[in-house]
Amino acid sequence: MTLNIGVLGYRFMGKAHSNALARLPMFFPDAPDIERHTLVGRDEEALADAAERFGFSHTATDWEDAIDEVDVFYNLGPNHVHAEPSIAALEAGVPVLCEKPLAPTLDEAAAMRDAAADADVPAGTAFNYRFVPAIRYAKGLIEDGELGEIRQVRGRYLQDWLVDPEAPWAWRLDGDMAGSGALGDLGAHTLDLADFLVGDEVGGVDRVSGHLQTFVNERPVYDEDGAVEEYRDVTVDDAYTAQVAYDSGAIGSFEATRFAEGHKNDHTIEIHGSKGSLKFSLERLNELEVLREGDRGYQTVLVTDETDPYVDHWWPPGHVIGWEHTFVHENYDFLSAVAEGGAFEPSFEQGYAVQKLLDAVVRADERGEWVSVE
Amino acid sequence: MTLNIGVLGYRFMGKAHSNALARLPMFFPDAPDIERHTLVGRDEEALADAAERFGFSHTATDWEDAIDEVDVFYNLGPNHVHAEPSIAALEAGVPVLCEKPLAPTLDEAAAMRDAAADADVPAGTAFNYRFVPAIRYAKGLIEDGELGEIRQVRGRYLQDWLVDPEAPWAWRLDGDMAGSGALGDLGAHTLDLADFLVGDEVGGVDRVSGHLQTFVNERPVYDEDGAVEEYRDVTVDDAYTAQVAYDSGAIGSFEATRFAEGHKNDHTIEIHGSKGSLKFSLERLNELEVLREGDRGYQTVLVTDETDPYVDHWWPPGHVIGWEHTFVHENYDFLSAVAEGGAFEPSFEQGYAVQKLLDAVVRADERGEWVSVE
Amino acid sequence: MTLNIGVLGYRFMGKAHSNALARLPMFFPDAPDIERHTLVGRDEEALADAAERFGFSHTATDWEDAIDEVDVFYNLGPNHVHAEPSIAALEAGVPVLCEKPLAPTLDEAAAMRDAAADADVPAGTAFNYRFVPAIRYAKGLIEDGELGEIRQVRGRYLQDWLVDPEAPWAWRLDGDMAGSGALGDLGAHTLDLADFLVGDEVGGVDRVSGHLQTFVNERPVYDEDGAVEEYRDVTVDDAYTAQVAYDSGAIGSFEATRFAEGHKNDHTIEIHGSKGSLKFSLERLNELEVLREGDRGYQTVLVTDETDPYVDHWWPPGHVIGWEHTFVHENYDFLSAVAEGGAFEPSFEQGYAVQKLLDAVVRADERGEWVSVE
Amino acid sequence: MTLNIGVLGYRFMGKAHSNALARLPMFFPDAPDIERHTLVGRDEEALADAAERFGFSHTATDWEDAIDEVDVFYNLGPNHVHAEPSIAALEAGVPVLCEKPLAPTLDEAAAMRDAAADADVPAGTAFNYRFVPAIRYAKGLIEDGELGEIRQVRGRYLQDWLVDPEAPWAWRLDGDMAGSGALGDLGAHTLDLADFLVGDEVGGVDRVSGHLQTFVNERPVYDEDGAVEEYRDVTVDDAYTAQVAYDSGAIGSFEATRFAEGHKNDHTIEIHGSKGSLKFSLERLNELEVLREGDRGYQTVLVTDETDPYVDHWWPPGHVIGWEHTFVHENYDFLSAVAEGGAFEPSFEQGYAVQKLLDAVVRADERGEWVSVE
C-alpha cells in the first residue's frame, strides 16, 4: 500500500518535508511507501513550480479538496492556518503532521488537541529537534539515570535576522497570524525539547515568569523594486526570557531572540543533574557534551556511531549529518506510526502542552507575576 | 610616605589580597609604598601563622585597635562583619576596601553607603572581576560604540561545590551571616559586571523578577575526625535566576548555581548590541570573544597585548595571567586612589546599588511578581 | 536529453554518489537530467538489492557491458580496479568520475591521466572535500589575497578505526589493492586540498620528506560466525607524516593516521600567510576559522549564508549541512561539465599530480631522504 | 640557612625568575629561605634599576665576581653566554639553573653537561613547561598506562611576532648568538616536553628528518628615533618542521614558527596511545583534554583541583593560574633540590639531550636526509 501525502505549504517547511519524503526509500527502506501526491497553496504559478521541483503529482488551491484525496495531511502553512485544515483532516480520519507552534492562540490549540483526541489516527506536532541523534542520545542518558536527579535546565535560541531595523516586515511579525514572535517560533522548540528530555524526571512545569520585549516596533514593506511601500507594526516579541519552576523543585531558565548578532541558528540546551551535566548546540548538532559521574570534564561526543539513534541509516562514524536529516527521522517515525496504527510523539497533546507554556509566559509578562500552569 | 594596611580576614580573600599587596612593587612600581601592617582575626594561633606567611608585621584580635593603627582598612571577613568595622573605619577617616557583597541586608549596606558618603576617603567594594584585562577591553569597546545600542545581557555563574549533599555546612549557607547564597556570593559579581559594562548604555535596572531555590535543605557539620556532629539548616539559595528590564528597553537574564556538575568557576557574561556581540568566560579569562560590525563570526581575542589594560605591567603577548592578577589590579587602583586622593570604582555606592538588586530579586521571588528597583 | 549514469561499486561510495544523484533535481534544478541507469558489481544478489535501494534501473556484472550502455561512468570500486575500466570508458568517449586516489601505482595513474588527455570528455577525480562550502569560501579568500603571501600549510587527517588490533583485515590494508594506507586513503585528500587552496600561490611542491609506519602488522579475517579464520599481513602504512617544500619557499607539514583514539573523521587544514590565517576541520564542516588583516583573533564563521558557495541551493543561514552534501555539489559540477562540454576540476591530471606526491612520500620514506617532485 | 641567589640577565627571564623567587615564601612555605642577592648585567644604570625593582640587594657587571658571592647561580642571559659562566659556577661548586636551550652549539652543550656531571650540585635546564600542572597531570596519566602504548606525538609552537618584515632585528635572529631560531627557541621546549611526557614509553629518538626555513632574510636595526640604521642578516630559521622516529616504533611530528598570524604563544602537544589520547595548549594552560578507555570524546579537564600537581599551594578549584606560575614551581623544585642535596630534572644532561635533537634536525635539513640520533 502506498500512502498518498498531501502537503499544505511550499516554502521553507514545504521544502524541508518534501526532501525528507524523497529520501526515505534509500535510507529507511522499511518506511511505508509514499507518494508525494498533492501540494496545496494559493498562488497557482508558484505552486506548480514548487510541485514540479518537490516531486508532487498534483496541486490544489483548496485544502478541503486535497484532504479528500490523500491518506496523510501535512500542515506546513503559517500558524494562523494550522487549526481549521488540521481539524478538518482529523475529522475526516486523515492523519495530520502539523508544524509548530500548534496555533497562534491557546483556544485554537485546544480545539486541535480535542480533534486529535477524537480521531484514531496520529496527529503529530513537528518539533523536529527531538529527532537529532544527539538529542535522542541525551534522552537515553537521562532515562538511564546518568545525570542523576535533574536540577536545572537552561535553554536558549539565538538568531540575528532582525537586528537590522530595515529588515522587511513578514507574517511572523504579526500577532494575529503568528501568535507570538521569538517566543512561539523559537521558544516553542526549546520548551518542547526541555520537556522531551527531562519532563518525566521533573514532573512538568508548575509555574512560569515571562518577559517579552519588542526592540523595533515597525518595519518596512518593500515593493518589487525594493522601495518602501509602507511601514507595518510589529506586534510580536523580538525576544523573550522565562523562568520556570518545575513540580520536582527543579528550575529552568529560557530565552530566545532574533537580535543576537553573530548567532544564526544557535539553539542551546544545558542540563545539570546530581550526577552529571550535558550541553547541546544546534549549530554543532552532531555533537553532545556530556559529563557523567567520575568524569572531570565534559566529553565532547561526536554522536555519529552506528549505535547512535538513526545513525546506522546514514554514514560511517565521523561523517556528519545536517539540519535537514532531523526531518527525515521525523517523517520516518510519523509515517511508520500511520502505517502501523501506532502512536507518534510529539502529538497534538504535546503541542497543546507547549502552547499552554507559551500562553503562560505571555500572561506572566502581561501581569508582571508568576503564572501557574494548570 | 608608606601606607600601613590593616586587613580583617586571613582566609581565602586574605590570601588573595595579601598576595596582591606583595606583588605591587615589582610590577606596578608607581603604586604607593605600602606595608602589610596589621592582620586582624579571632584565633590567635592561626592569625599568627597567617601573618607570618602573608608578611604582616602585626596582628590584632580586635578590629577597633587595628583601625587606630593603620592608614587603610581591608574588610575581608564574612558578610555579617562587613558593616560595623567598615563604618567605624570610615568614620575614623580610614579608607576601606570591603569584599562583596557589601552586607547581608540592604539596611546595613545603606548604612555603609551613607558612611562612605560622609567620609572623604575612598570606600571600595571589591568586585575584582572588573579588573580582568579582557573585561576592561570589553568595556572600552562598548564605550566606543562598537556594539551599537545594547539590547541584551546574559550572565551566569556556575559552580559545583555543593552538588554532593554531604558537603559540609558553612557560614555561606546561613541566611543571617551571608544574606543570600548563590545570589549574593556569585550573582553579586554578575550584576556588578553587567552594570559596569553596560550600565551607562542601558540606564540602570527598571525592574526584576527573581527565583531562588534550595536543593539541599540541611547539611552536616563534621567534627575533627570527620564524623557528623549535627545537621544544620541551609537557609540560603543554592541557585537563583533573574529576569531584568532595563530603563532603555534592553533586557537581561541572570543565573547562578553551586550545583552545576563540571563547572568550577564558570562566570560568563554575554552582550548583544545592534552592531555586535561579545562573550566572556572567567575560566578562560585571558580571552574575549568579540563580534563587530562587518565580522562574520566572533573573534577569539587573546587579551594579552601590551596595549591591553594592565597587561604592559606583566608579560609579553600570549603569556597568560591568572585569576589572582585581578586582585593586583584592583589593589593598584584602590591604593593609587587613596594616595592621590582620587575616586575609586566600584565604590560603596556601587556596592549598595548591587545590594538593591539582590534585595529586589529576593523580594520578587517572595512575592511572585516583578519588583521595581527605585 | 537525459544522461544515463553507470556506476561501478555499490558500497560506501556507491551510496554516497547515488544519494547525490537522487538529490540533484530538487536542489539543483538546472543540473542535467540524469537516470541512475546501470549499477555494476560482482555479487548479483547484493547488486540487485543495492540497485533497488539506490534507484538504478539496470545492473551489470561486467563493467564493459555497462560502459556500452551509459553516457557517464562512475568508478567507485577499490583502488586496484580504477585504471582499466576508467581508461576503457574514456577510450569509448564516456566521461568518467573516479574515486580517489586515482590508482594504487603511479604507472596506472599515469596511464589514466594519458587516457584522459586523449579523450575530449571530462575525467574527474572525486576529491569531494573541494566541494565543502567553507573550503570554497576559503579558496576565495586566498585568491583575493586576504591571507597575503602564503607561508605555511598544515594538514592532518585523524581516524581511529584501526586502534583495536583485532579490527578485521580489509582490502584497504593490502598494498597491492590499495597502493598505500593512511597516506593514499586520507593523505590524498589532504594533499589535494592543500593544492586546491594554495597551489597557485606557492607554485607546486618542490620536494618532500616522508615517514610511513605500520603499528599492527597482521589482522584477523573473521568468518560469518565471528571466528578468526586466518591472519593476513597488513602491507600498508597505518600512519604517515610528510614535510613539504614548495617552490615559493612556503613549507608544509602533513600527517594522517587511523590510530588516533577519539578522532573519527578529523580532517584539518591550517594555512598561515603574511596577512592572515585560516583553519578548517571536517568534523565541523560548516565552520571556517578566519583571521584577516586587522583582526585580533580568528573569526569562527558559519559558512551557511546565501552568498556562500552552493548554500543558496539549500537552507537558510544557520541550518547546517552534512558530509554527504559535498557529493551533491561535486556531482552537480561534474555533470554540468559533461552536459555543457566544459572542464571539471579536479581532473585526472590533478589526480595524477596528487599520486606523484603520494609516490614521492613513499620513496622518500624508503630512501630516508628528501625526494624531488619533478 | 638562607641561599643567596645570583642571577645573570634582567630582562624577560630575569623578571620571570625574580618574580618566582619573590613568591615562594607565601605559597611554598617549605621552600628554602633565599635572598635575591646579586643581579648581573653589563649596563650599570639599567642593572641598578632592575635590581631595585626585582628586589636584589647587590649588582655586578662581572659574573665571575657574582659567582664568588652566591650560593646558587641562575644563567638567564642570551644563549651564547650560557656555557662559560655556567661551567665556571659548577666548577666552583655553585648549583646552576640555566635557561634553555642549553647553548647555541652542541659542543658547548656537551661541555656544560660534562661540567654538570663532574659537579655534585644540581645543574638544571629551565624548561619551565614541565611545571604546568596540566602537564604534570598528563605525565601521571601516561605513567599509569591510561593512554596505553604510545604511538604518536605531535607538537607545535606557533607565534606571530616576526610576521611583519619590518619587525626589528634582535640577537635571537643571529645564528652565532642564538644557535637556531624557531627551532632552538620554541622547538627546544616542544622536544623536551615530548621527551618528558613519553620518553620512557617510546624509548628515545632513533632518527629525525628536519626542515628549516627563513622567510625574511634581513631585518632593520632602528635607532632611538625609530629610523632604520641598517639591515642585518637573519641567520636563523623562522620556522622548522621535524619528523621523528622513536625506538619503540612510535612516530612524532614537530613544528614551530614565528610567522603564524593570530597565534601569540600557542604551544600544543598531542599524544595518541592504544587506549587514549590527550591534547594540551599553552594558551589555555589550566586545561587538559583527555580521552581514556571507555570515553567517547575528549574530556576538557580544568586542572585546578587541590589534588592536581602544585595546585594545593594556590587557589580553590576553578581559580586559574597563569604562565608565570610555572616558574614558581620550577624554582621551588630546583631550590628544594639544592637545599636537600637532591636531583633536579630537567638536568643539564637532559638539556644536552634536547640539544642533540636540535642539532640532528639542523643536520638533517642540511643533508636532506634522515639523521640518526646517537
TrEMBL record, chains A, B, C, D:
Residues 135-278 form the GFO/IDH/MocA-like oxidoreductase domain. It comes from the Archaea. The keyword Transferase does not apply. Keywords: Oxidoreductase. SUPFAM superfamilies: Glyceraldehyde-3-phosphate dehydrogenase-like, C-terminal domain (SSF55347), NAD(P)-binding Rossmann-fold domains (SSF51735). InterPro entries: Gfo/Idh/MocA-like_OxRdtase_N, Gfo/Idh/MocA_oxidrdct_glycsds, GFO_IDH_MocA-like_dom, NAD(P)-bd_dom_sf. Residues 3-122 form the Gfo/Idh/MocA-like oxidoreductase N-terminal domain. Pfam families: GFO_IDH_MocA (PF01408), GFO_IDH_MocA_C3 (PF22725). GO terms for molecular function: nucleotide binding; oxidoreductase activity. The keyword Amino-acid biosynthesis does not apply. PANTHER family: BCDNA.GH03377 (PTHR43818). This is Oxidoreductase. It comes from Halorubrum saccharovorum. The lineage of its organism: Archaea, Methanobacteriati, Methanobacteriota, Stenosarchaea group, Halobacteria.
